[in-house]
């Protein structure tokens, strides 16, 4: 299987925040944003693997800024690391200023997807070859995040988490 770049999975979805998607403060519901991020991330994972993908976990979500009614919201997702059958997808959420058109990062998230066959069994995915400094940074950090998740889930012994240990040595 030929390695792919994060750019080959990049997915960009832009939409408006409508009244039916907002809370009493007229800001986008967090759950609505999670759904938008899940859709963009699943497309990115599918582009990378060219397989059916399922959400395995939502590893991190940061709701740093409220997204007001009427905002133009752009969700950008790309695979940040590929493992055997799983893929970490990093998601950035941007809001666009109505008058100037300038974009501000509002939120970010990290999801994990698993590629499966038609029976739901995990299948191998291509390796990822990061190109930019940001892609390389996210790629390197993904292994630490995976090891931390495995340790916390009791699936890896802390002394086996070599990438985590390296942070403290």
Summarize the structure.
The chain is α+β, with helices and mostly antiparallel strands.
Largest sheet, in brief, is: 5 strands, antiparallel
Structural class: alpha+beta
Radius of gyration: 17 Å
How many distinct helices? 4
The overall pLDDT average reads 94
- Low-confidence parts, pLDDT < 50 over ≥5 residues? none
Output the strand order for the largest sheet.
Answer: 1-3-4-5-2
Total count of strands: 5
Shape summary: globular
Distance between the termini: 35 Å
Helix content: 25-40%
Which descriptors apply to this entry?
five-stranded antiparallel β-sheet, 4 helices, alpha+beta, 32% strand, globular, 169 residues
In terms of topology, how is this protein built?
Blueprint lengths: L5 H4 L1 E6 L13 H20 L2 E12 L8 E11 L3 E11 L6 E14 L16 H20 L9 H7 L1
Antiparallel strand pairs: 1-3, 2-5, 3-4, 4-5
Write a structural description.
The chain is of the alpha+beta class. The chain contains 4 helices and 5 strands. It has helices spanning 6-9, 30-49, 133-152, 162-168; strands at 11-16, 52-63, 72-82, 86-96, 103-116. The chain has a 5-stranded antiparallel beta sheet with strand order 1-3-4-5-2. A hairpin with a 3-residue loop joins strand 3 and strand 4 (86-96). The radius of gyration is 17 Å and the shape is globular. The chain starts with 5 loop residues before the first helix and ends with a helix.
């Amino acid at each position: 299987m030929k390695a792919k770049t994060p750019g080959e999975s990049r997915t960009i979805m832009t939409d408006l925040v409508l009244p039916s998607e907002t809370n009493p403060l007229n800001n986008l519901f967090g759950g609505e944003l999670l759904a938008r991020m899940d859709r963009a991330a699943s497309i990115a994972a599918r582009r990378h693997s060219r397989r059916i993908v399922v959400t395995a976990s939502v590893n991190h979500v940061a709701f740093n800024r409220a997204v007001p009614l009427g905002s133009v919201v752009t969700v950008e997702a790309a695979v940040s690391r590929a493992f055997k059958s799983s893929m970490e997808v990093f998601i950035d959420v941007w809001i666009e200023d109505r008058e100037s058109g300038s974009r501000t990062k509002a939120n970010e998230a990290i999801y994990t997807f698993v590629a499966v066959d038609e029976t739901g069994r995990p299948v191998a995915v291509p390796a990822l070859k990061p190109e930019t400094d940001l892609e390389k940074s996210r790629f390197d950090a993904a292994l630490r995040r995976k090891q931390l998740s495995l340790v916390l889930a009791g699936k890896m012994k802390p002394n086996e988490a070599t990438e985590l240990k390296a942070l403290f040595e």
